Amino acid sequence: MGRTDRHAAANSADTASLTAGSCAGDARVALELLVHGVGGTTPQQMLDDPRTQRITGDDTAAVFRRADDVDAEDRPDDYRGRPVPEAYVWCNLTSGNSARALWLLLLPFMVVNLAHWMRPAARDRTRTIRLYGLLVRLAGLSLTVLLVAAACEVALDLTAWQCAGTPDCAGRHSWLGFLSDGGWWSAPGRRLALAAVVPTALTGLLWYLSRRTWSAYESQQPLFQQPEPDETAGGALGRPGFWYGRRLVARLRAAHTAAGLLTVAAAVGSAAARFDRRPGGPALLDVLGRLLDAALVTGAAAVVWVVCRRGRSENRLDRELDAHLVRRLPLAALALLVLTLVYAGWDRPGWQSAGRLPGDATFGAIALMQGLTAVVLAVVAHLLHRTAPDPRAALRGLGGPAVVMLACALGGVMSGGVSQRVADWLDGTRASLPGPPVLLTWQASVIPPLLVLLLLLCALLARRAWLLRRAELAAVESDYAGEPHDSARTRRIASTRAMATLTDRAPLVVAVTAVATLLLGAGALAGALITGDTPGETAEGTYAVVHGAAQTAQAIGSWLIGFGFILFVTWGRRAYKDASARRTIGILWDVGTFWPRAAHPFAPPCYAERAVPDLTWRIATWTRAGEGRRLVLSGHSQGSVLAAAAAWQLTPADRRRVALLTYGSPLERLYGRWFPAHFGPDALTALHAEVDCWRNLHRPTDPIGGPVRLPGDAGPAVDREALKDPLAYGRTAAHPLPAPIHGHSDYQADPAFAEERQRLLGRLGPEVPGQRPES
Hints:
mainly alpha; Rossmann fold; 58% helix; globular
């Protein structure tokens, strides 16, 4: 059945239903607000009309109507038997030109921010909840320090200190000649001061992107309303300030920017201070070095205090800014950096660069702090989960700590990979340079065993899917009983169903990866401590085979990191240019950028802070414009999550005039399991009670969407029985050509979609909600 035919049939069915379900002569107008899902689409495709017109919004996100429906409010009699369709198109918030693939480089920041929202549901544990948020923010701060420290390692240590200070290395790279020709810039401190431009520019770029993307995406004020005392409408998601985190993001941006600048100052100043503190060194410079060290410690303490002092404010729309803090903290850190550069550039006769910069312990301290933070966070998450156990919660409430561990591992892999590749490029196979810190080398060595473990896990999951496929063969034959048997067709349907279940195994993959990363990371840290300053070698008495295996793992891991880094950027760029690739990984990216920046200000921007206010304002202005106004909020995939979030932001009076139709929805399957505090059973049950009515469609072949699974009688009231996919097993009079297996797409092709939309539109009334539909 073609798209036009499907919509014609649906509109015809709507006409019959509304004529039977509405009073004769009733001129009420109904609106169907369509919200698309991952990958996006065009308004022409959503509205099934080549002539569409934007009625509100801009080039980034807008609401469209068919050209013939623009003045529908002035012609209510023409729409008595059918709704006025509108399409909210938000795909430009998450996709666009291929340059946005560079956002993938911020993946560790996005992942740690995601962990903030994975907090287990809890009751009467306010202090523990605050501790959970504090620990995640500290983990995010450590990632910023790690990234800037890696940039310092590349620019200051490997390039300016080691290579430029070694005649053989500097001679092979002509662009380093002015740093090693005995001129003014050849002094070690001045080389470091010049190289500090690179990590300083990186910090400035992160600050700029965070500020710019907030202005473009997240500065939209939500619909103003007074907070509900009982917060029955979805808990935190119904609070007025949930989608407006301006104050916290500004504070965190100032703190993380200052942390990056202080990291650069510490990397530059530590080498000069070590030289000045040698016996017989200049007393004045020694005193200046100690004063700068004290100032650095004070600045670091101020940064930690700012990060710990304040979390999110959601109970009200917080329009204030801590202006003095936001301006002065980064400026003070920048001033301290400038003073440090001047101090390091002072003329010091006899100072020569040898070995590595005195920053090896920095990476070890960061790794140790991140591991301890993840462990403590796991304890806190377990305590929260015990207060309100949710059997469907991913990893029994430990999803947040596991994701924090993965974020730290990503940061370590990216830092180690860049350092290893730059060291190999500068030195090649000559081994004339000390190279990067030992810990980064050991971190590279854990990549091969981790990949082997993941390959074994993938093999296990593949076997499980194969066994499930065998079981699904009988289920497919039962679902299409009486149809002519076609073994190839049956296997194809069964395979699609089996593959769709792999989404539910994501907690196992995350748990295994997180635990393995923690253990292997601890082993890398121990190996770095044992081998000391000699990477690739082992302690005295270690067997030669172990020594050889360690060196082989380090070499393979180093190349895998570099290859993976290139593949990562290339794949991300393709995902933004190729629609099919975007649909493959789009759900993971859209889940990550759905949430506001609460733990890390340099994470990619939150599109929902623009999309949810857009939808809320549109729904509220429509329902309040007339006494008979009705609305069906129709969301597919990620659009159903935006629809639910917008419904929670409405006032109770507006919610009672809204019906919710979701299909291919990850509301429970992904969001409910991984974010139980915000999309758990209590929150979704409250949403069902507050809106006029809610129906959800799903298929067994859908790898993303699923049932809402509300407890008690609410479950069958919301979830329709799983839809058949494909609609027909073989050729029939209604389907003379083979019916496709739709999976996650094209739910409108199923007659059940038009049927459920009819029921919702027919039931909606201007004042009193109708009866809940029977299962």
